[in-house]
Amino acid sequence: MTELLGLPEIASSHGDQVDLVLSLVHWLMAILFVGWTAFFLYTLYRFRRSRQPRADHEGVQSHASRYAEWAVVLSEVVLLFGFSIPIWSERVDEFPEPEEATEVRVVGEQFAWNVHYPGPDGEFGPTDPELVDPASNPLGLDREHPASNDDVTTVNQLHLPVDEPALVHLSSKDVVHSFMLNELRVKQDAIPGLEIPVWFTPTVTTEEMRERTDDEEFGYEIACAQLCGIGHYRMRGFLTVHSQEGYEAWMADQQETLQATEEDSFWQ
Question: Where do the DSSP E strands lie in the chain?
Answer without folding.
Answer: 102-109, 112-117, 152-155, 157-161, 166-172, 177-181, 186-190, 196-200, 220-224, 236-242
